[in-house]
Amino acid sequence: MTESEMSYRAAGHVTSGTSIALSILMIATGIVAICVPILAGVAVTALVGWVLVFSGLLHLTFAWSASRAGAALWEILLGVVYGAIGFYLVAHPLAGLASLTIALAIYLLLEGVLELALSFELRRLPGAGWLRLDGIVTLVLALLIGSTWPSSAIWVVGTLVGISILFSGVTRLMLMMAMRRVVA
């Protein structure tokens, strides 16, 4: 075995070992988020809040470099709106969680309607039935979340984030295990 082959195998082993550990951590995090969805939801709300505060600060900073007064005013207005919403989410995470939940329900409702419309537009093409099914499932999910709001705010965001993290961890773990078999 050449030196480059040995270093490739060693790098693959270290990378996959680290990735496997991180995948297991993602799986555990996803399970915790599913088991304690309100904690995960508040964490997501705080993260979104801080991202909005930071974005607001960036818009205010960009206002100084705007070439026109109208552009500067627009950047200042965006900065204030982003900052205010972000600050509200950070200061009132439970109320922010309720807001994110209703925004998610509205998003899913619009997505479901658009998917159904597209499925009817593409009805003659193979696979259009899957798009219709996706639209129906998305609409049902939107209606379930919306009809139980605000009580759904306690579990929706945290549970969905937990499911996403769990499945990402499982997917990455399976990929790394397969990579280990190929490299070995």
Keywords:
single chain, 184 residues, 88% helix, 3 domains, mainly alpha
Would you mind describing this structure in some detail?
The chain is an all-alpha fold and 184 residues long. It folds into three domains: 66 residues, no CATH class; 46 residues; 57 residues. The two termini are 13 Å apart. The model has no long low-confidence stretch (mean pLDDT 85).
User: For the report, how would you describe the main beta sheet?
Assistant: none
* SS summary, helix count: 6
Strand content: under 5%
Backbone CA Rg: 22 Å
What does the overall shape look like? extended
How many β-strand runs? Answer: 0
- Helix and strand element order: HHHHHH
Mean pLDDT: 85
Summarize the structure.
With 184 residues, the chain is mainly alpha-helical. The chain has helices at residues 3-35, 37-64, 69-91, 93-121, 128-147, 156-183.
Present the secondary structure layout.
Blueprint lengths: L2 H33 L1 H28 L4 H23 L1 H29 L6 H20 L8 H28 L1
Helix pairs in contact: 1-2, 1-6, 2-3, 2-4, 2-6, 3-4, 4-5
